[in-house]
Specification:
By secondary structure, the protein is α+β, with helices and mostly antiparallel strands. The protein has a domain of 97 residues: Ribosomal protein S6/Translation elongation factor EF1B (Alpha-Beta Plaits). It has 4 helices and 4 strands, in the order βαββαβαα. Strands 2-3-1-4 form a 4-stranded antiparallel beta sheet. β2 and β3 form a beta hairpin.
Amino acid sequence: MPLYDCMLLVKPLVTREATAELVARVARRAYQRNGVITDVKSFGKVQLGYGIKKLDGRHYQGQLMQMTMMVPPSFTQELHYLNKEDRLLRWLVVKHRDAVYGLEFINEDDGKYEMSGFNRERTKDDFDIETDSDDSESEFLTSSDEDSDAYKYEIEEGDKKK
């Protein structure tokens, strides 16, 4: 079964319980078709780029939900009942490309060549790592303080010459 993302954009004033019930209804229908819900994410309220006109007015915000599921390809046609749902502004189903799942995932080269992309020619000695002691840091601070004092002194002398 392929992997799909179902994006639901719910009206901003719909309660969390009603949104959860809507997601649960889609999930029940997926389970009836021997599907599996792998992930549910809520992105909260999002600002829309343009207003979506519905019977109750224009909506410039919405609650965005994402459901990731493994369902048969014919399941996407069954979701058209969402068009009549009053609580939804928009919905979208997207199929994952190149998703590896099922037995193909288990049998895939068993990780033999997992580290083959790394270059093994470099060694630890190739990298220049310098360790500084606390003494060198304090010397740096005092030398910069001395420079700033010399600069102030030069300015004061310049003022006296005028």
